[in-house]
């Protein structure tokens, strides 16, 4: 894909390649590679929704682990304030998604937060564990690995579909969740965040892996 100079307000002619690879051990490997002829901002991720249940159930009973003790504080519009805070009640250690949902003004709301992944890159493949998602009824498990420093968890609060999907069912809030490995969001506006500038002559090289197993 080519994004021309000025497209979306971003400088430089950027060339992006996204590769998808299925392995024999049930791993979906997604690689992101990009170069640009000007210094530019680059932060690419995968916005797929996941639901490991074997029926039309939502994700409320899924168990989630995210190896992170801190996350980015955000305002009511989900824009980072620049503060890094303890995950506290939003921390996940094999916890039910339902236990983290809450009602605000009579409406069930979920999570749309960026977690800072703990632990360094493994020496074996340069990846760190970002999340583990499980669903007891189906016995399915998905482990997320990445080169990125963190991930966005979005529990699908605003998920509505006009067309039927799996099992001829229209998707509704909390029918799926996203685990979006990426660099710190809104980093150009917060000098204390790691930079997301892709310099001229440097290649953007990041990876996200979804490993599917049985519990």
Low-pLDDT ranges: none
Span between N and C termini? Answer: 38 Å
The structure class reads mainly beta
Rg calc: 18 Å
* Overall shape: globular
Say what oligomer this is: single chain
In what order do the strands lie side by side in the largest sheet?
1-2-3-17-13-12-5-8
In CATH, the topology is named: Beta-galactosidase, Chain A, domain 5
Tally of individual domains: 1
Please report the total strand number as a whole number.
Answer: 17
What does this structure look like?
This protein has about 220 residues and is mainly beta. It has one domain (about 1-215): Beta-galactosidase, Chain A, domain 5 (Distorted Sandwich). About 0% of the residues lie in helices and about 40% in strands. It has no helices and 17 strands. The protein has strands spanning about 1-5, 15-20, 25-35, 40, 65, 70-75, 80-85, 95, 100-105, 105-110, 110-115, 130-135, 140-145, 150-155, 180, 195-200, 205-215. The strands form 4 sheets. It has an 8-stranded antiparallel β-sheet, with no helix packed on it. It has a 5-stranded antiparallel β-sheet with strand order 7-6-11-14-15, with no helix packed on it. It is globular and about 50 Å long. It starts with a strand and ends with a strand. The mean pLDDT is about 95.
